[in-house]
Amino acid sequence: MARQGTPSIPMGDAGDTARETVPRTWRTHGLLSSSAHKFEAFLEAAEFDRGPWLTVAFGCGIGLWFYLAAPWQWVAMISAFLGMAVFSWAGWRHQPGRAFTLAAVISLALAVAAGVSVVWARSAMVGAEPIAYPRFERIDGRVLSREEQPAEDRVRLVLAARDGETGKAHAYRVNVPLSADSPELREGARVRLSARLMPPSPPIVPGAYNFARRAWFDGLAATGSAVGDVEIIEPPGASRLSIASAQRQLSRHVRANLEGTSGAIAATLASGDRGAIPEADEEAMRDSGLTHLLSISGLHVSAIIAATYFIVLKLLAFWPWLTLRIRLPLVAAGASAIAGIAYTLLTGAEVPTVRSCIGALLVLVALAVGREPLSMRMIAIAAGVVLVLWPESLVGPSFQMSFAAVIAIVSLHNVHAVRDFLAPRQESWLRRMSRRAVMLFLTGLVIELALMPIVLFHFHRAGVYGAAANLIAIPLVTFISMPLVALALALDLIGAGAPAWWLVGKSLALLLAIAHFFAEQPGSVKLAPRIGMGAIGLYVSGALWVALWQGRARLLGFGPILASAVLMITAPIPDILITRDGRDIGVANEAERLLVLHDREGGYAQDNLLELAGTDQSPIEIADWLRSRCSDQFCVFSLERGGRPWSVLVARNRYLVEERALAAACMRADIVIADRYLPYSCQPRWLKADRRFLDREGGASIYLADQKIDTVAQDQGEHGWWRAPRE
């Protein structure tokens, strides 16, 4: 029992300084206050510019909506960030020492909440419910759009029709062979045809392309192919000049004057129509890092606007009366703005083109009012406009690659050392051109480094020699090919364009030769398996930090970048890949050769399996593998993973087998894979991936050493495009 009057224990000569070092719960407020003061000082010293970060926060809100699975999570996220803004205002509005922190927290929180809300509203307004199952249907509808794809020997139509079962209006995308095409098969025509229709395809395996998501926002309920002839019930109205018709006519005119792939690329530069480029040449452009030249974006729009500005300015300078009364740069800027908008509309107004047009218009405005034309705020405005209009574009490679490239360029050219290197000085033309060439190569290298993680995340392969290829290709296209195309089109007005078209063909043939040369070099392509959201999220956050902060604070962004690089390099290759229909599987063996159930060279499923397995070597059929045993119905093989053998049983077809024999085989296997429903008596030791499993989960990636299964369903949540609602 404690006694009253317990004497105090002497503490020596330490006094109160000893007590100051002892943590106390009541000192937490002081520590938090100190941290808040440091954060406020950091924002003030770093010259925090909210403009670009507001767009980043808005994009984060959009990304959270795609990442989170259910509506209650979206509501919770909106509520949490609105609550953060309200509590910050209530707690800090009367504290003058929190001005930067208060502005940052409130503005960014509201931007995130707005991003979630905008993309959710967009999905609810434009999302198209997919058809419930594949079917063969007789369609009576009107043509909404037409896309010519001569390289694929087809025409792609989008038809508005009513569902034969429910009577609901739907949009179907149907491929029609060129043999069934006719001049009247264009916008406005009423047609009747038979087609095999499929719900828009989700990823066939985790990490593959998600067409169902894109179709949802494009308003497509099904895709398919026409069977037989196309009957035109009602021809289109009188031919009217529209953007789509002008684009097609311009593309046909270019291809009529220039044959082959050169003509197809020239048509792309003039009208944005890529449908005539052969697949082999398009792959060479991709693997050499030149595919951006086929996507109408900043390079093309900037060239058109710059050329228009220069020509108008020089021509008006010959008119002294006008020169003395009007600021010619304003007139030239207006003319080039009109040219840029017209070119953007003519080439299809894709996301990179719209971004480039908005950015170029902002540059013209900045030049007109005497402001800095190349800035992150300009990019943020362009990105914000695109995200407000098309928030779903955030998760697509086009938006990400386009803005990543521009951010890399502006960040590099805003570095003081680079500005000093490019500053005008008294020197010979040779030294000046050499500096420009070095800067062009450095810019290409920075762009390649910035884009490679994004390209690997989406496509699982990226060109390595893009910087060297672009050093030659970009000046060729910008200063030779595109001006020659414009000159040839102008001379065609008087029937004298043939010599210019000949020169266009030679310049584009040189471009193709450059693409094939770099694409065919050893090690020209980097392959990678699926990269996780954590790795790409770290990279994007680190890259944006480096690009948007000023001073030494930006160096903190290299930590996440390096961490993401380690995660990407060490990303594991799945041991077994199963497509969503179960008809194709890929098994990674020790020799880095993919084992497949059926060798379908050039098939969509097999190409995806090879990319996600991180190999470009030709696959081996499981039946031909020395370590497998196959009958007419099944194959069985063993894999050594994680220090133990794994027995795998795979169905080769849908032939029926005796149930008792199948049950016995399943008992001896760890994993059973089949594209049909297997009876309950089939009970493997670990996983039964039959039709029931695949209908529920979609495709799957299996990591045996970790005993981990990734499925398509895990990434889709309750978004409308994943699966059609069932009654």
Can you walk through the features of this model?
By secondary structure, this protein is α+β, with helices and mostly antiparallel strands. Helix content is 51%, strand content 15%. It contains 24 helices and 18 strands. The strands form four sheets. A six-stranded mixed beta sheet has the order 11-10-9-8-17-18, with helices on one face. Strands 1-2-3-5-4 form a five-stranded mixed β-barrel. Helix 3 packs parallel to helix 14 and helix 10 (298-316) runs parallel beside helix 13. The longest helix is centred in the middle third of the chain and has 31 residues, at 429-459. The chain is globular. The chain starts with 15 loop residues before the first helix and ends in a 16-residue tail after the last strand.
Distance between the termini: 74 Å
Number of strands: 18
- Summed over residues and divided by their number, the pLDDT gives a mean of 83
User: What's the overall geometry?
Assistant: globular
- Beta-strand content bin: 5-15%
Helix content: 40-55%
Main beta-sheet strand count, sense and barrel state:
6 strands, mixed
Low-confidence stretches: 1-32
Number of alpha- plus pi-helical segments: 24
- Rounded to the nearest angstrom, the radius of gyration is 30 Å
Structural category is alpha+beta
